[in-house]
């Protein structure tokens, strides 16, 4: 386990992943009943953009840095609002020093009767996560293998909630494990929302993953992808995507409406683009 998210925190891929995460949470918060978020690959929770790792790559400058410097249209500002609110909450003195990872985003939005299970296997990162979550009473840190966590933590007792799967993709077979996690989660918690993140490097491997998932009998799978230049196997990450099972009703339309502007804002080279479509729609009755 060599991957350290601190090198990448706040990059273009985090911006879209976390903006979508905050919108899913906003939707779950619309109803009074409590819910649970299971974050299988939680990372360290909160990132210091002036720290050694983030400073060495500077990836955040082409991500959250650009977003905060931009003058977005009202539609994009509205789309990003719940996410940017969590970023501001971690930087109460203004500026941008602390970037919230998924556990910080989730805990800053939850109510008293909602719960986060933040799971992280790397022992050092799990210790840092414990520190970051100290005092955030709605969060419980666990140190399971992510795919064991899916099987043992679902369904949530609240019967409402979100499974976030955001692996580092440093081991071969991650797409197969994610597919298995989606199937296991669907079996245990068919009505739950799943947000499943992946990098777009090997476009053929991504297409094989999509084909396999589309044949698994899970309905309502929204695909959201963005690439800031032409994707490829070489060089730093150019593109990323996510599958959202049981997305909020408005997510497809809202995301589609802002993707041209958001992609232009985050583009780093020729061939930047995006797609938002249904990998599997709802079955017609
Ligand atoms: C991409 S980062 C997570 C970022 C985080 N979800 C966020 O949005 O802020 C992936 C994390 O998964 C952890 N990890 C790797 N393999 C794991 C496994 N099998 N089970 C649980 N965590 C794992 C890594 O240590 C790393 O911190």
Structural class: alpha/beta
Globally, the shape reads: globular
Q: Which small molecules are bound? A: S-adenosylmethionine
What is the CATH homology-level superfamily?
A: Vaccinia Virus protein VP39
Q: Using the 3D structure, state the CATH architecture.
A: 3-Layer(aba) Sandwich
Structure notes:
The chain is an alpha/beta fold. The protein has one domain (5-280): Rossmann fold (3-Layer(aba) Sandwich). Helix content is 41%, strand content 19%. The chain is built from ten helices and ten strands. The protein has helices at 12-29, 52-57, 64-69, 74-89, 102-109, 123-133, 146-153, 174-188, 203-214, 251-266; strands at 36-39, 46-48, 98-100, 115-119, 139-142, 161-165, 193-200, 221-227, 239-245, 273-280. It has an eight-stranded mixed β-sheet with strand order 5-4-1-6-7-9-8-10, with helices on both faces. Helix 8 (174-188) links the parallel strand 6 and strand 7 (193-200). The longest helix is centred in the first third of the chain and has 18 residues, at 12-29. It is globular. The model has no long low-confidence stretch (mean pLDDT 96). The protein binds S-adenosylmethionine. S-adenosylmethionine binds next to loops.
Compile the SSE list and pairings.
Elements: H1 12-29, E1 36-39, E2 46-48, H2 52-57, H3 64-69, H4 74-89, E3 98-100, H5 102-109, E4 115-119, H6 123-133, E5 139-142, H7 146-153, E6 161-165, H8 174-188, E7 193-200, H9 203-214, E8 221-227, E9 239-245, H10 251-266, E10 273-280
Parallel strand pairs: 1-4, 1-6, 4-5, 6-7
Antiparallel strand pairs: 2-3, 7-9, 8-9, 8-10
S-adenosylmethionine is lined by residues 1, 3, 5, 41-43, 101-102, 119-122, 125, 145-146, 166-168.
């Amino acid at each position: 386990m060599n991957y350290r998210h601190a090198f990448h925190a706040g990059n273009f891929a985090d911006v879209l992943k976390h903006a979508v995460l905050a919108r899913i949470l906003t939707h779950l918060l619309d109803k009074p009943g409590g819910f649970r978020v299971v974050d299988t690959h939680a990372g360290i929770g909160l990132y210091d953009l002036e720290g050694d790792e983030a400073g060495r790559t500077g990836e955040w400058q082409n991500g959250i840095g650009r977003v905060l410097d931009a003058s977005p249209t009202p539609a994009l500002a509205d789309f990003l609002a719940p996410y940017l609110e969590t970023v501001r909450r971690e930087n109460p003195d203004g500026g941008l020093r602390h970037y919230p990872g998924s556990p910080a985003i989730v805990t800053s939005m939850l109510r008293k009767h909602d719960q986060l299970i933040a799971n992280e296997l790397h022992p050092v990162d799990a210790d840092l996560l414990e520190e970051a979550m100290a005092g955030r009473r709605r969060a419980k840190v666990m140190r399971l293998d992510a795919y064991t966590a899916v099987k043992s933590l679902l369904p949530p007792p609240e019967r409402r909630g979100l499974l976030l799967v955001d692996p580092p993709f440093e081991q071969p077979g991650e797409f197969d494990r994610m597919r298995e996690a989606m199937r296991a989660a669907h079996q245990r918690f068919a009505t739950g929302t799943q947000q499943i993140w992946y990098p777009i490097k090997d476009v053929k491997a991504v297409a094989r993953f999509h084909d396999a998932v589309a044949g698994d009998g899970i309905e309502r799978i929204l695909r959201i992808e963005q690439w800031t230049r032409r994707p490829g196997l070489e060089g730093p990450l150019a593109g990323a995507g996510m599958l959202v099972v049981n997305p909020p009703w408005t997510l497809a339309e809202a995301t589609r409406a802002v993707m041209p502007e958001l992609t232009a804002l985050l583009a780093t080279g020729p061939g930047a683009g995006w797609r938002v479509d249904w990998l599997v729609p709802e079955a017609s009755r």
